[in-house]
Amino acid sequence: MNNALLSYHDAVLYRSGEPYRILAGAIHYFRVHPDLWQDRLRRLRAMGANTVDTYVAWNFHQPQRDQAPDFNGWRDLGRFIDLAAEEGLDVIVRPGPYICAEWDNGGFPAWLTGTPGIGLRCMDPVFTAAIEEWFDHLLPVIASRQASAGGPVVAVQIENEYGSYGDDHEYIRWNRRVLEERGITELLFTADGGNDYFLDGGSIEGTWATATLGSRGDEAIATWQRRRPGEPFFNVEFWGGWFDHWGELHHRRDADDAAREARKMLDLGGSLCVYMAHGGTNFGLTSGSNHDGTMLQPTVTSYDSDAPIAENGALTPKFHAFRKEFFRAQGMEELPELPVELLADARVIPAQSLPLSGAPELLRLLRNPEAAVSSVKPLTFEQLGLDAGLLLYSAEAILPGQAATPTESRLKITGLNDRAYVWVDGVFAGVLDDVNAAEGLVVTGTGVSARLEILVENLGRINYGPLTGQGKGILGGVLINQRYTFHWTQTPVALTDWTQEDLEALAGADFEIGEPADTYIALPDSGKGFVWLNGFLLGRYWEKGPQVTLYAPAPLLQPGRNTIKVLELGKPGTVVELREAPDLGPVEAGPIAAAELP
């Protein structure tokens, strides 16, 4: 763009005509309490960064199709950008519409991906029409804050890592065009993995191609010199840490190892954005899932990501290692002194153990005839307009056998996404998931009708790869041996919409404080479920780990009485602990591969 603040020529990046290097870090406004935005941005600036990078999560702003996109409060993207400017940071915005980001559904609203027959991330007119309508609301927020309008926005990304998904270059060019038509005049760029395969699918002529990778940056730079010889190298996602899945170990990357890799790219003249500089938290039900081709891999509630600025804002050894490299890249070997207030630990509530009141019987709590919807075949989350949470299915089925000779059968579910809790005549029969659903559970019958109740939990929508947009619930059917069961009622359980009245029935604990401070909530003898603090859905817990504690930032607490509520799905506990430090589980250390999932 001729009038853009950033430009490039002969593989050199310029800002206002002067050679320049982007030294950036990613912070997602939707993962950080808005009262903490300025603090986290200030810490990024203190790390030596000149730019903050953020995605825009469409489903965060418009979870329901019949509601206009919301840009208020926590969703006030414009305020986040303005605060970045106050801290002296340029801003890179990555509006998607697809973002990956280990965020539920890759940022797509479930109402969009649940549209029958829709083609995602291609020139399907149903899909592109929805994008244009969304961009009509979103892009004025960004365009009005561009450098050309006196704001801090200096670059905007086209789509996201498309070379990992498809090769519809017409679609990428269309994305570029709709951004330009809606007033984006600053530098546009694509972002893809650091080798030929990803560039083949995602880069287009006449548009800056940037990279996403965690190691072997020198190899990627050599690829760019061969494939994009006139363009400066920018690693827009340098994976200095990594996220966690439930049932795996907590990822940790050595600070010196990450800094050495960053220095390698900076010494070769590249620009760099640390992903994540501050990860934050997948509050509520916003964490997505991956799929390894065999099984679902749901992401934990914490998005700490072993980032330089920890989930609670602490400055880690990785912060100091990156700070040294960022200032060194600016020709400063002598580091400026850090403000004292940034070095102080955040205040925490003193550790305490709280008795957890008795949990109600789960089925009795979730049965709601007034909300039930009848159908012949099981309905999915999408067919019922349910984005996240739980769905209770109920039907009558004849279980083979005779009164004198009860017979064992197999209850199987086809197309189960993601986790099913099964009861027969009110007696718990077991749990099925995407691995064992086809094998099923043993049930015993006597040839008479039995009541089946199946509670399906959405563990987070897939955010990366060819299964992005996959539906939730029972997508196939329920079999007794080879025989289908028909005539179902479905009761949606929209946990994110639960009111204080809904929460009153749950197990709970209260505590008193004088002044709000951070705390870390643990449920050491509970199994799996959800936690609310003062009516706010913090997120999921699961005894399989690795995450043990849930971060509760000070703005969610209040002077006086505070209330924790717990919905347990299988193993009710007796105690809630408030701890003084996070516990994200046992560690798996190692380098981040260049071709890891973005």
TrEMBL record:
Its EC number is 3.2.1.23. Keywords: Glycosidase, Hydrolase. Residues 378-493 form the Beta-galactosidase 1-like first all-beta domain. Pfam families: BetaGal_ABD_1, BetaGal_gal-bd, Glyco_hydro_35. Residues 13-324 form the Glycoside hydrolase 35 catalytic domain. Residues 509-562 form the Beta-galactosidase galactose-binding domain. It catalyses: Hydrolysis of terminal non-reducing beta-D-galactose residues in beta-D-galactosides. One of its GO terms (molecular function) is beta-galactosidase activity. InterPro entries: B-gal_1-like (IPR026283), BetaGal1-like_ABD1 (IPR048912), BetaGal_gal-bd (IPR048913), Galactose-bd-like_sf (IPR008979), GH (IPR017853), Gly_Hdrlase_35_cat (IPR031330), Glyco_hydro_35_CS (IPR019801), Glycoside_Hdrlase_35 (IPR001944). SUPFAM superfamilies: (Trans)glycosidases (SSF51445), Galactose-binding domain-like (SSF49785). Belongs to the glycosyl hydrolase 35 family. This is Beta-galactosidase.
